[in-house]
Design brief:
Elements lengths: L2 H16 L3 H13 L10 H12 L4 H11 L7 H8 L3 H10 L4 H9 L3 H8 L6 H8 L4 H9 L7 H13 L4 H5 L6 H4 L8 H24 L1
Length: 222
């Protein structure tokens, strides 16, 4: 979007806010943030932030939730504005925590705040680094641990998997999630000695059988 066009859109938003047409102003922000051709000029970032949050304060909660869902996958949300939205209540920030681009450092800062609902949203991200999952696992919250274990795109260190296995030994809710992971090492799978659900037991047996066959092949090749 050409700079002149951007300024025209911004001017229109200002008019809507002056007229207290806040829902319409929010719709204009949605169009602005989801348009891949838009790059907010640096000199207008602060103005956009001020206008946006003035608008957000004036619209009903339902509209806030819908708006954030609509922009959550966009790459054009100004960074400062995004960080501010991430501090909102979980019902508002959840779509961003699940889908928008956030650095591992920022995710860890949010995790350290200890909000369970936000942790569960983070656990559903399409990609999680070992650095982030190790911090999440250390929270010790069973629901969060199960959500992390159930996410096939969450990378887990050996230490994190060991901690999850220790929990799974005594916590039935972990069975299904952990037993389905492709990165569950055979030696750790053997620790799941407690009676498992039928599905989890089959998966653990599959892991152990695969490892047994691999060793047989290695022996034959010798």
């Amino acid at each position: 979007m050409p700079v002149d066009d951007f300024k025209a859109v911004l001017k229109a938003i200002v008019v809507l806010i002056d007229l207290e047409q806040y829902p319409a102003a929010l719709a204009s922000f949605k169009d602005l943030f989801t348009d891949p051709t838009v790059i907010v000029p640096e000199e207008h970032v602060e103005e956009i932030n001020l206008l946006f949050f003035k608008t957000l304060e004036k619209v009903p909660l339902v509209q806030k939730i819908v708006f954030v869902k609509q922009i959550s996958s966009s790459k054009n949300i100004p960074a400062k504005l995004c960080r501010r939205l991430l501090k909102e209540a979980p019902m508002i920030s959840a779509p961003l925590l699940e889908r928008t681009q956030i650095s591992s450092k920022e995710l860890i800062e949010i995790i350290s705040e200890g909000d369970k609902q936000k942790l569960l949203s983070i656990a559903n991200r399409s990609s999680l680094s070992e650095e982030v999952t190790s911090v999440m696992v250390k929270t010790g919250n069973i629901d969060v641990l199960a959500a992390v274990a159930a996410n096939p795109n969450a990378k887990l260190s050996r230490d994190s998997i060991e901690m999850l296995v220790e929990v799974a030994v005594v916590e039935p809710t972990m069975d299904g999630a952990l037993s389905k992971r492709s990165d569950l090492p055979p030696d750790l799978a053997r620790r799941l000695s407690r009676p498992l659900t039928a599905e989890a037991r089959d998966r653990v047996d599959e892991i152990l059988e695969t490892e047994k066959m691999r060793k047989r092949r290695e022996f034959v090749l010798r």
